[in-house]
Amino acid sequence: MTLLTNILDYNQQFVEEQSYEEYRTTKFPDKRLVILTCMDTRLVELLPKSMNMKNGDVKVVKNAGAIVSHPFGSIMRSLLVAVYELQADEVIVIGHHDCGMSAINSNSILDKMKERGIPEETIDTVNYSGIDLHDWLKGFSSVQESVAHSVDMIKNHPLMDKNIPVHGLVISPETGKLDLVVEGY
């Protein structure tokens, strides 16, 4: 039995038993907040619990490292949609200690791509087309600096409402303790 089969079997039972009822809410965040955070598995339940958030309270956008790397990429678009269409009045960027992006090595990732069958020619073509894969795949050395950088990109985005507070925090994936990096008020 595959992982997907297990998921679909469980889901069928979840729906048949109407287990979804306790999670019903609207698409609008009750606390009028959008959070950009990391996709780290340790934060899935810890982050909302450590902030007293429940289903329906906030919009959550996740990516590797909670990084806004491009001002017109999908992360920034999601944050703008949350503000302009989904009634979020504040933004919080939350990085975390011991983040995988702090130890990432672009050469290692490229080697792993090749091991899984991505031809060197494909990597060369991407590089020749103007994408510097080493830059695109780089991480960061300081989570605090990375969070501050993402806050700055969001706050100074030409399409972001200047009245929206943008905060930056770092969470401990062991304890859930939040440390303030940028207070956006």
Automatic annotation (TrEMBL):
Belongs to the beta-class carbonic anhydrase family. It comes from Rossellomorea vietnamensis. Binds 1 zinc ion per subunit. Keywords: Metal-binding, Zinc. GO terms for molecular function: carbonate dehydratase activity; zinc ion binding. Its EC number is 4.2.1.1. Its cofactor is Zn(2+). The keyword Cell cycle does not apply. Coiled coil: none annotated. This is carbonic anhydrase. Zn(2+) binds at residues 38, 40, 96, 99. It catalyses: hydrogencarbonate + H(+) = CO2 + H2O. Pfam families: Pro_CA (PF00484). It comes from the Bacteria. InterPro entries: Carbonic_anhydrase, Carbonic_anhydrase_sf. The keyword Metal-binding applies.
